[in-house]
Amino acid sequence: MTVRAQPLILFGGTFDPIHRAHVRAALAVSRALGEAPVHLLPNAVPPHRPQPSADGAQRLAMVRHACAGYPQLIADDWELRRPDGAPSFTLATLKHFRRHIGRRPLVFVVGADSFANLDRWHRWREYAALCHLAVVPRPGAAPAPLRVQRAFPAANAALLRRRPAGRRLMLARPVLDVAATEIRRALAAGGPCPQLPAAVLAHIRRHGLYNDPAKADHSVHAHNEAP
């Protein structure tokens, strides 16, 4: 079945904190798909990972600051509002949005490193019936296994816009080359953080976030899910 509706794009992560590379990636995917809206969803309980340094309300506030001035970027608190307190498995998020948008194209943004490990995610084979993938390059990312590549055949943006799910768009840029761990270390040391949008940095300074060096070193990646 061919659909001709503007895609809805989902970009999930801890956003602890959200940084300029996140914003550039979201804008690039939106632009590739005809200025389609991008919902940035802070995780509530990342599965099988250390919990974020900042709480959900603070991370959502930072995402809202980062989205300000970009009408195509939307800070979305759906995962934070889930009443069951369950881990933020991607499958539940995809099913939620699929129910609400019908046959409209649904696109989920992942870094190339996450795409290479997609077969370790919770019930990943079900994703192809729910969404497309937009894969953003990341330094040093290994190629995805063939079973993952075959589950999401490569396609151009025009094809993604004509089908509801099941294809993969590989972006050439921007490169996700910013590490949140390094940002938290710099913040804990009181150093400059050019990787952060000015409004996000101002919010962090105003609320005294990321001041504890002991909490700066945990490494959390968006939706990294073991079965």
Question: What do these coordinates show?
Answer:
The protein is of the alpha/beta class and 227 residues long. Helix content is 34%, strand content 12%. It is built from nine helices and six strands; from the N terminus they run βαβαβααβαβααβαα. The chain has helices spanning 20-32, 56-67, 78-81, 90-101, 112-116, 146-151, 157-162, 180-188, 198-207, and strands spanning 8-13, 38-42, 73-75, 106-111, 132-136, 168-170. A six-stranded parallel β-sheet has the order 3-2-1-4-5-6, with helices on both faces. Helix 1 (20-32) links the parallel strand 1 (8-13) and strand 2 (38-42). Helix 2 (56-67) packs antiparallel against helix 9 (198-207). The protein starts with 7 loop residues before the first strand and ends in a 20-residue tail after the last helix.
What does this entry show, briefly?
The chain has helices at 20-32, 56-67, 78-81, 90-101, 112-116, 146-151, 157-162, 180-188, 198-207; strands spanning 8-13, 38-42, 73-75, 106-111, 132-136, 168-170.
Provide tags for this entry.
227 residues, alpha/beta, 6-stranded parallel sheet, 9 helices, 34% helix
Counting DSSP E segments of at least 2 residues, the number of strands comes to: 6
Helicity level: 25-40%
Mean pLDDT: 90
Low-confidence stretches: 219-224
Strand order of the largest sheet: 3-2-1-4-5-6
Work out the strand percent. 5-15%
Shape: globular
* Cα gyration radius (Å): 17 Å
Distance between the termini: 31 Å
Order of helices and strands: EHEHEHHEHEHHEHH
Total of DSSP H or I helical runs spanning 4+ residues? 9
Secondary structure class reads alpha/beta
Largest sheet: 6 strands, parallel
